[in-house]
């Protein structure tokens, strides 16, 4: 998979995350590892920072369910509008985490 194909695969996967559910950066990377040969949460974060605006960027969070501080207020508003389970101001990963292949 070329770097451009990997970017497309990341964006396509993120676009499939249902409203009210999330994936971690590492979860996105792990889901694409077999197809891509890459397994970098940091690379997924970079892709989302540069090109994630057209997809549900707020549905990709760090492993603790948080967003970078500069995006936290807007992400929180989007989470609330979608009914994303929150706990202590973060996404409740035990409840909200989505894996490809799960139902919506």
From TrEMBL:
It comes from Micromonospora craniellae. Residues 8-80 form the Methylated-DNA-[protein]-cysteine S-methyltransferase DNA binding domain. GO terms for biological process: DNA repair; methylation. Keywords: DNA damage, Methyltransferase, Transferase. The keyword Methyltransferase applies. The lineage of its organism: Bacteria, Bacillati, Actinomycetota, Actinomycetes, Micromonosporales. CDD domains: ATase. One of its GO terms (molecular function) is methyltransferase activity. The keyword Transferase applies. This is Cysteine methyltransferase.
